[in-house]
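Attaching the record inline, Q. Sequence:
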Amino acid sequence: MTTRAGAVLAICAAVAWTAWPRTAYPHNPTTTTVLFNREIATLLQRKCVQCHAEGKMAMPLVTYDQARPWAEAIKEETLARRMPPWPAEHGYGTFSNDIGLTPREFEFLISWIDGGVPVGTGDAPEFVDHGAHWTLGTPDLVVSPPHGTSIEARSTPAFRRVVIDTGLTRDALVRGFDFKPDPRVTRAAFLSIAGTDRYLGGWTPWQPATELPSGVAFRIPARAQIAVDVLYAGASQPQTDAPKLGLYLAAGAASGIVSTSTLRPATANASGRVVGELKFPEARSLLSMRPELRPGGRSLEVKLLRPDGSSDVLLFVKDFRQDWQTPYVFAKPVAMPAGSVVQAIGYFDASPSTSTAPPFTIALNHYATK
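Structure, as predicted:
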């Protein structure tokens, strides 16, 4: 990375407090029909301004005057695929929380920048900050940790665990949740039932809420605590995060109860290739995945191997980033016939040791197929 590129941290979700934009001069000729107030504002609202707005973690890109000075920096970051921070390769799995640029969006963006960054006539669509309200409506239960978490100024990205008491006096069926941390310092969060391996789901700035399919629910035990592993990165000033967790209860009985299975690798070799498999004796529907790779992990491929011999690649992460992590939520549940195997292959810079901790784990959320 060049010195100039290193100064421009994150164009769609990174901290850019010290970076200096490059100027697009007003005499540049306009050679494109792509306009900010039409295509580009819409694109930025879909893929960028969840982090790039006032009160968020990076410089605002909501208006033309805000985005225009950063045009060349945006081009550089997107060409290098550093931003948006979505590492999964397109064509392998379809995810509801996919923040990556499509080929058409990428073409629009580069055409606008190279074509003179025209603004266009009329007004850009209004920016709606969905992180400022409960996206699934008013929750049935809102809970918070007993005290805030202090985040040092300009601290490097690191996970901190927050434990939240649900206050439930009886078992509950939960159909969804919404998590609200401080958007200035929070990059991701992963929720589970404390003391268990039961993964509930993840939060990112671009998908704050999780809603399960109709009739499907998590079972939350009475007196359960929710463990939230939050990926914090310091802002320009110290902050104290006091997140809120909104839970949405199922109205009646659920036809499907979500279970979590954890895939851990079984073999490794000197090349740094690590393989793990997990068999499902009964038919299940796969909802989401949360992969974790130890430092040194470069890529991960997850396949579904069906008993009839057919297979699909569910996920291919080419360059895993420790500083930007995300859950992978399937746009539609993936049917896994009885006897299916989920296989994962990870590649590391060097052969990792499995004596203390596995090189990678993948939490898989699924429910029984009726």
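The chain has three domains: 3-128, 132-257, 259-368. The chain is about 10% helix and 35% strand.

More tomorrow.
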